[in-house]
Design brief:
about 425 residues, alpha+beta, PmbA/TldD fold, 2 domains, eight-stranded mixed sheet, 9 helices, about 25% helix, about 40% strand, globular
Amino acid sequence: MMDLLQKLLSSAGLDGYKINRTVTETDQLFFVHDRVETVRRGRTTDYSVSVYLAHDGALGDASFRLSPTATEQEIASAVAAAKENARAIRNQPYSLVRGETGSFSHKNLIEGKSLAEVAEAIANAVFAERGSAGAGLNATEIFLYHTDTRIVNSDGTDKSSSSYSAMIETIPTFDLPDRSVETYAQTRLSSFDEPSLRAYIREELRKVELRAKAEKIDLPAGVAVTLPAEEICEILSEYADQLHYSALYTHSGILKKGDEIQTAEDCDRITLTAVGKAEGACESADFDEDGSSLTDRTLIRDGKVEAFFGGNRFAQYVGEPNTGNLRVLSLAPGSLTEEELFACDRLECLQFSGLQVDLFNDYIGGEVRLAVLHKDGKEIPATAFSISGKLSEVLNTLRLSEKTTARPNYVGPAVALLEKFTIL
């Protein structure tokens, strides 16, 4: 298929093309409680094709997807239609990634085992954790992926990668005499570490028990708030979006080099780097969707904007280096020790309906579904309240944990301690 595609695209009178092929093998296990009900194995191939056409001083582009069973006539028709669609698009001209080649392989998840063997090992680790009486996993789904990616374009770029990952979805449940409470949890893995996975399941079972026992309570004004890694990443992603070359080119961002996002000297000042690869981050890669090699870029250093980043097209538009479209954010650890954290009164926010971060209106806030109030040595589960604050003021109180963790697109402190929230 790849050879046929290249042949038809090369003879179609285009000014460029790009082919992204993804082959995915999966092993899928579906459990009811701890009993496996269904096992599925599959293999899919996806072709995404982009065509480029220079016209009237502009560059048009159009994309389409193909089934691996498409006939030569079907491919030719799709190419012709895309060429006409590209004629209607007027982008500022730019060149494709030129002459980049290489093959990369990441096998740290399987370490010589088959997908089925790793899936079984993950299942054993998941069901080794039982939680307290009344807690359990009502349903669990385990997905193992082996993904082969290849990118070929008309300017001599030909890159491929092979990687392995896993996704685990669970429905933790806690039974009370009068009702049963369920939550949903999902995690993705790029490596299998049994103690870490068991700790994750243990924490999810703890959270569903807390959710079952949580009530709406009066919360003390001015109490410090802690946010978990997921919400830290949400805040950082807003800044990363603002610091992408596309925002710089379209003048849609409000940040510029030298801007201070923190002015206080007694907080943990943010040093944020967009990276290609980081241990434990499933979004790690050696190249982006255009075939560009990935180069780490520090965006914010000590609370001050230092640089922008982005891929091939927008790098050319703004005259900056092509870092590739980096997908992982790395935040430098902070100064907050576990001893300091456990010693202070705080509102530990564990689950949000959604954290809103608005740089344009200098706002941060959201509805909290589950939290634990730590006060005077007591732990009180709480629910049904909201937090809100002025983002610039809140970040000037920031303390980041020394302890770090990894998420699919984030590596850095596991906890952020913040003040100056209004709690409603």
